[in-house]
Specification:
single chain; mainly alpha; 0% strand; transmembrane; CDP-OH_PTrfase_TM_dom; membrane
C-alpha cells in the first residue's frame, strides 16, 4: 500500500541524491550509513525512554533506504546485484534493532508481556521477509501481504513517536504482531496456490 508513495518520495530525495553523487558518495555507503544510524538510534534512544525523539531520528535514517536507490540511479543508471543483496540484508538488521530497542524499553519498565510481543515482532518481521525472498528464489511471485516492511516501520515508528499517549505504543506492538502473523499466513497460502502442489 505504502509503495504508492515511493515515486513521490523519490522525487523529493532526488536533489539530495544528486548532491551525494557529486561528492562521490555511492549507494552502498548510503545504505550502510542509514543502517548504522538506525541501529545506534534505536538501541540508544528507546532503552533510555526517549521514544519520540528516537522515532523521529530513526525516521530520518529510514529514508536512506529510498535515498540509496536514488543515488544508484543517478550515479550509474541502476543498482547492482551486490547492492540489492546488501540493502536487503541491512534492512533486516535495521528492523531487528528497532524492535529490539523497544523490547529493551519494555524490559526496563518491567513489562514482561510487551517484551515478548516486541521480540515476536523481531522474529515475525524476519519471517515475513524470508517467506517472500525464499518464494522468489524458487521463481514464485510473492508480493502480497497485509504488513510489508513499509507498513511495519510506519506502525512501529508512529506508535513509538506517540508513546506519550496512554496505550498507543502497546496497541501498535500488538497490531504489528497480529498483522505480521497474518502476512506470513497470506504468503504461505499464496505460494501454495501458485505452485499448485499438495
Amino acid at each position: 500500500m505504502l509503495k504508492l508513495l515511493r515515486p513521490a518520495m523519490t522525487r523529493i530525495l532526488t536533489p539530495l541524491g544528486r548532491a551525494l553523487v557529486r561528492r562521490g558518495i555511492g549507494p552502498d555507503a548510503v545504505t550502510a550509513i542509514g543502517t548504522l544510524g538506525t541501529v545506534v538510534s534505536a538501541l540508544f534512544f528507546f532503552p533510555m525512554g526517549m521514544l519520540t525523539a528516537g522515532a523521529l531520528v530513526i525516521t530520518v535514517f529510514v529514508l536512506f533506504d529510498l535515498l540509496d536507490g536514488v543515488v544508484a540511479r543517478l550515479g550509474g543508471g541502476g543498482g547492482t546485484t551486490w547492492g540489492a543483496f546488501l540493502d536487503s540484508t541491512l534492512d533486516r538488521v535495521a528492523d531487528a534493532a528497532i524492535f529490539a530497542g523497544l523490547a529493551l524499553h519494555f524490559a526496563l519498565q518491567g513489562e514482561v508481556v510487551m517484551v515478548a510481543v516486541s521480540v515476536f515482532n523481531v522474529f515475525a518481521g524476519g519471517l515475513v521477509s524470508y517467506a517472500k525472498a525464499r518464494a522468489e528464489s524458487l521463481g514464485v511471485e510473492c508480493d502480497v501481504g497485509l504488513a510489508e516492511r513499509p507498513e511495519r516501520l510506519v506502525v512501529g515508528l508512529v506508535a513509538a513517536c506517540f508513546s506519550f499517549v496512554p496505550f498507543v505504543l502497546e496497541a501498535g506492538m500488538w497490531l504489528l504482531a497480529v498483522a505480521s502473523l497474518i502476512t506470513v499466513v497470506q504468503r504461505v497460502v499464496h505460494v501454495y496456490r501458485q505452485t499448485g502442489e499438495s
